[in-house]
């Protein structure tokens, strides 16, 4: 596409490449002489005006442009909407008070075609939904008649497509996170002095939304969108020159609050001070700068009936006590509407139908949602304060009357806080009944100002068994009512903690941004009991989504602040710091955090876990294993997810994979039943890894996939990296190789920047095991050598031993060099020491297999027999089949072909049984080379390949993959001369002369 035929704009339109391409297609048709029409439908602020102006700019040199917006005439005078499109000839001479001429649709259609008889004409009508009905009908009729040869195109923008049904419509979606983030960078990258803050892409500075912008041939009126008058194109708005980068927490809050609306994002950003953008001072609540966008949304409300506006206000108010995005309870709205005097038939149609609220409300099951998130905010913003207060008071009364979830009989989430104490058997009759938490939140919304007593009641009520999301909403509302700055910050941090446990880290960071940092010298000293809450929440969020080293240090610092005053959070902070160090492969950091736990009061089970893990890492293995065995069946609450997850870790350290699977399954059930939602990815990861160790690869894959979805939903990229590593390991068994590579690359991409050594080790091991399955031992050995060695690339301390058997196999099959023998012997000796300490039933068999691979010919037979005997006692199809494959391959290399067929046949059947396709192909190839037919090789049933013997086909495939004769010989346990002999026969049979031709033939 040449520059002259590309839709461009004075400023970049972020995230609108597809929409610009659609406009470009429309203009290309127009420039060839064919007309058409398109409606750009979007709520206010999404950039439909900017797209219209971009199209007008692109057409300016090709022909005239008629551009109109919905001015006051178009809104109030019948037939006045198209006035700017008609030119002066039709309306000249009319007095201001004279009525507009009656314009039929046919007359408008003829009028629009007149300028198109010469150069192609582009007609742009902005905010056309705001025109009167007659004007809209006339314009829609005229647009439908445009087509081939008309040389006129009509481009409309509207709040929705209903006003122009039947015309092609392009619905604009909110910006995705990447585009919104790029726009935020542009907005905060420095601005020319004097620019108007909050100017948004898609609106003209100093022009109210929806006001007329005039009309002209050749260029749209007004200044270039997104820049103030006198500002050079490309100047960012809303920040001072040289502004510092936006604090990550502030960035997350701005992106979340703007919800992909570029005009709102610009408005919010332009109203913040440099200190607020940099995170040095708290963000205001609510964030200022969105008034213009909310007012544009509210314009639609003015034309609705009173009863519809009343119901919309109740629906918006009813969302205030619900978790973000949960909508409102339809039955509560039905009761509130009935109590408020709304007709029952109207309520039935509005809440359970589709037409009574003009499409602004949508029902999903028993929940009612606004069609756009900003509409709910606009409703509350637009309603008079007295009406909002009355709605909240009505809802509070209804919730209190029914005792809605005051003390649920069953818990939907777990909390570190203990459950409330049972009530005394005889409660005095004068004691007021407990007020439900949702009712308290509604009372808080109705409060005229700060109310310390109500804030304290909210904080006291925000406990188990209410879900974490509801507790977060209540604590945030309590913070708004707080009169002391330090107490307000502490309650916001506590609300952020609950939001994180609910699996909403974006909301947690937004609440932290409102809490702000503790600035030295700020008014009012913070109580010591609350100083460490915000650092604690920051550290827990970093544990799931940031660098592990940062999380470790942040949580240690938080524990030091909380220690004397908050034992529960101190305990969680130290356990979190230990988990971060474990993920990073920092054994000393892990020991440091666990040893600090010894200074805090611990229950017996947790103290045994702490002492046992420390003993194992310090080399006191027997003592540590004795202590950890006591942790396999946790005492106390049998359904506590955290204790069950620790039991699973203890079982894996012991090597008791069966106990690890049991503990993982129990932990997953506890999290599903009791929560918190944020723990679901970890529960699935622990169970999937235990199943991998047990050889249950299909189950591990299923649980890891579910965990990956949960990690993405709850914003936990570190968990995603660990789960990708687990999926890569499963794919290294089941295949295909492409899936293994994709998951391993995803794990490494996420784990590398965050220092997640455990995920890096597992992903690298998975890639090496897939290389072995595909017959590439040299590549596998190169990947694994740093992991099992002692240099800087050493693998994770808890996982590197698991990769030693693969490295020994890869090094031997790949043709080890003499200087590597010492390293292999040392690795096997270290593995033998580990196997003697672990309870893993497969370790003795893998050790015997390693010794068989390294043994001289007269000892290898005995070593392989020993390994197979251990496999018989341990079970596990996959590892046993691997040993059988290696044994059969060794026998065939010793020309004991008949003996080789038995173990190779058993290996093939076992690999097929556990769906290890690539490994089964390798075993089948060895079995064919031993002289036993095993079906038809893939892609060889037809064509010239059918003429090759099984051995020739194996060699041909290896050569086509780029292997040299020596590499093929090592891979297939042949001599280079034998490979050369077979390759010559392959060339002769296929009628080719080069390896290049062989590659082309096999690829076809």
Topology:
Blueprint lengths: L16 H15 L4 E6 L6 H12 L5 E5 L2 H5 L6 H4 L1 H4 L13 H9 L7 E6 L6 H12 L7 E7 L10 E3 L5 H11 L60 H11 L3 H9 L3 H4 L13 H12 L3 H13 L9 E2 H10 L4 H9 L8 E4 L2 E4 L2 H10 L2 H18 L34 H10 L5 H10 L6 H14 L3 H17 L3 H11 L17 H13 L2 H15 L4 H18 L2 H11 L6 H14 L3 H9 L11 H14 L2 H18 L5 H14 L3 H17 L3 H18 L2 H18 L2 H17 L3 H12 L15 H10 L7 H17 L5 H12 L2 H18 L2 H17 L3 H17 L3 H13 L20 H11 L4 H8 L3 H15 L4 H9 L1
Parallel strand pairs: 1-4, 1-5, 2-3, 3-4
Antiparallel strand pairs: 6-8, 7-8
General form: globular
- How many beta-strand segments? 8
Biggest sheet statistics: 5 strands, parallel
Determine the oligomeric state from the structure: single chain
The fraction of residues assigned to DSSP E strands is: under 5%
Radius of gyration: 35 Å
Low-pLDDT parts are 1-10, 72-77, 88-103, 190-243, 404-432, 519-524, 937-942
For the largest sheet, list the strands in their spatial order: 2-3-4-1-5
Mean pLDDT: 79
Question: What is the tally of helical segments?
Answer: 47
| Fraction of helical residues | 55-70%
């Amino acid at each position: 596409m040449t520059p002259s035929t590309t839709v461009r704009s004075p400023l970049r339109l972020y995230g609108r490449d597809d929409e610009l391409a659609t406009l470009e297609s429309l203009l290309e048709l127009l420039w060839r002489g064919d007309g058409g029409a398109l409606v750009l439908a979007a709520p206010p602020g999404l950039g439909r005006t900017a797209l219209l102006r971009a199209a007008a700019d692109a057409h300016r040199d090709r022909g005239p442009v008629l551009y109109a917006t919905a001015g006051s005439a178009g809104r109030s005078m019948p037939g006045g909407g198209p006035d700017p499109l008609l030119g002066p000839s039709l309306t000249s001479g009319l007095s201001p008070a004279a009525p507009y001429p009656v314009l039929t649709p046919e007359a408008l259609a003829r009028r629009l075609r007149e300028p198109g008889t010469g150069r192609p004409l582009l007609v742009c009508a902005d905010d056309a939904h705001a025109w009167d009905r007659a004007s809209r009908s006339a314009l829609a009729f005229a647009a439908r008649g445009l087509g081939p040869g008309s040389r006129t195109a009509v481009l409309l923008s509207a709040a929705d497509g209903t006003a122009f049904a039947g015309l092609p419509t392009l619905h604009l979606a909110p910006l995705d996170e990447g585009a919104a983030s790029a726009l935020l960078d542009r907005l905060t990258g420095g601005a020319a002095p004097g620019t108007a803050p909050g100017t948004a892409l898609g609106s003209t500075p100093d022009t109210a939304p929806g006001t007329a912008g005039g009309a002209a041939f050749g260029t749209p009126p007004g200044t270039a969108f997104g820049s103030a008058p006198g500002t050079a194109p490309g100047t960012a708005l809303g920040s001072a020159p040289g502004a510092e980068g936006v604090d990550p927490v502030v960035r997350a809050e701005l992106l979340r609050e703007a919800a992909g609306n570029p005009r709102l994002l610009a408005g919010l950003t332009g109203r913040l001070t440099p200190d607020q953008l940099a995170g040095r001072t708290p963000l205001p609540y609510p964030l200022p700068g969105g008034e213009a966008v909310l007012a544009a949304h509210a314009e639609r409300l003015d034309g609705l009936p009173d009863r519809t506006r009343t119901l919309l206000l109740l629906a918006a108010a009813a969302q205030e006590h619900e978790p973000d995005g949960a909508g409102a309870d339809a039955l509560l709205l039905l009761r509130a509407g009935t109590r408020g005097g709304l007709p029952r038939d109207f309520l039935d149609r509005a809440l359970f139908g589709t037409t009574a609220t003009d499409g602004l409300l949508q029902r999903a099951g028993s929940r009612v949602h606004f069609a756009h998130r900003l509409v709910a905010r606009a409703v509350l913003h637009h309603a008079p304060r007295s009406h909002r207060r009355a709605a909240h008071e009505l809802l509070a009364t209804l919730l209190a009357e029914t005792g809605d979830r005051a003390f649920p009989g069953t818990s939907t989430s777990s909390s570190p806080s203990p459950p409330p104490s049972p009530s005394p058997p005889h409660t005095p009759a004068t004691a007021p009944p407990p007020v439900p938490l949702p009712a308290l939140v509604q009372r808080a919304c109705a409060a005229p100002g700060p109310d310390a007593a109500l804030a304290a009641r909210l904080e006291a009520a925000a406990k188990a068994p209410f879900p974490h999301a509801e507790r977060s909403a209540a604590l945030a509302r309590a913070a708004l009512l707080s009169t002391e700055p330090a107490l307000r910050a502490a309650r916001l941090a506590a609300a952020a903690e609950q939001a994180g446990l609910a699996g909403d880290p974006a909301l947690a960071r937004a609440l932290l941004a409102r809490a702000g940092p503790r600035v030295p010298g700020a008014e009012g000293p913070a109580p010591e009991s609350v100083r460490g809450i915000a650092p604690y929440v920051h550290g827990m969020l970093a544990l799931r989504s940031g660098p592990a080293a940062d999380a470790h240090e942040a949580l240690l610092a938080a524990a030091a602040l909380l220690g004397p005053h908050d034992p529960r959070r101190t305990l969680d902070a130290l356990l979190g710091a230990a988990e971060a160090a474990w993920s990073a492969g920092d054994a000393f950091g892990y020991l440091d955090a666990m040893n600090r736990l010894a200074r805090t009061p611990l229950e017996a089970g947790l103290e045994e876990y702490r002492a046992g893990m420390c003993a194992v890492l310090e080399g006191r293995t027997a003592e540590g294993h004795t202590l950890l065995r006591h942790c396999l069946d946790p005492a106390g609450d049998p359904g506590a997810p955290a204790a069950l997850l620790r039991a699973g870790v203890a079982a894996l350290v012991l090597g008791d994979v069966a106990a690890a699977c049991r503990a993982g399954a129990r932990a997953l059930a506890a999290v599903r039943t009791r929560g918190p939602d944020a723990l679901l990815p970890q529960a699935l990861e622990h169970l999937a890894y235990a199943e991998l160790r047990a050889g249950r690869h299909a189950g591990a894959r299923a649980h890891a996939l579910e965990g990956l979805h949960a990690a993405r939903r709850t914003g936990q990229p570190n968990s995603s990296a660990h789960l990708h590593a687990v999926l890569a390991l499963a794919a290294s068994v089941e295949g295909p190789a492409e899936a293994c590579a994709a998951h391993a690359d995803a794990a490494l991409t996420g784990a590398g920047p965050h220092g997640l050594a455990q995920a890096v080790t597992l992903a690298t091991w998975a890639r090496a095991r897939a290389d072995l399955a595909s017959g590439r031992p040299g590549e596998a050995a190169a990947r694994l050598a740093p992991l099992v060695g002692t240099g800087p690339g050493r693998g994770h301390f808890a996982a590197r031993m698991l990769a030693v058997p693969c490295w020994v196999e890869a090094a031997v099959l790949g043709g080890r060099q003499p200087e590597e023998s010492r390293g292999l012997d040392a690795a096997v000796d270290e593995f033998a020491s580990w196997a003697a300490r672990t309870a893993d039933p497969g370790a003795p068999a893998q050790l015997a297999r390693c010794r068989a691979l390294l043994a001289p010919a007269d000892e290898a037979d005995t070593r392989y027999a020993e390994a197979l005997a251990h496999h018989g006692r341990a079970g596990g199809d996959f590892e046993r089949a691997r040993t059988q494959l290696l044994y059969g391959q060794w026998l065939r290399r010793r020309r004991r072909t008949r003996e080789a067929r038995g173990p190779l046949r058993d290996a093939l059947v076992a690999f097929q049984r556990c769906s290890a396709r690539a490994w089964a192909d390798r075993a089948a190839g060895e079995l064919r080379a031993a002289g036993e037919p095993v079906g038809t090789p893939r892609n060889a049933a037809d064509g010239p390949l059918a003429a090759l013997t099984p051995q020739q086909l194996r060699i041909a495939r290896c050569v086509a993959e780029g292997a040299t004769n020596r590499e093929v010989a090592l891979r297939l346990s042949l001599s280079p001369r034998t490979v050369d002999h077979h390759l010559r026969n392959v060339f002769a049979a296929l009628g080719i002369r080069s390896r290049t031709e062989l590659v082309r033939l096999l690829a076809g």
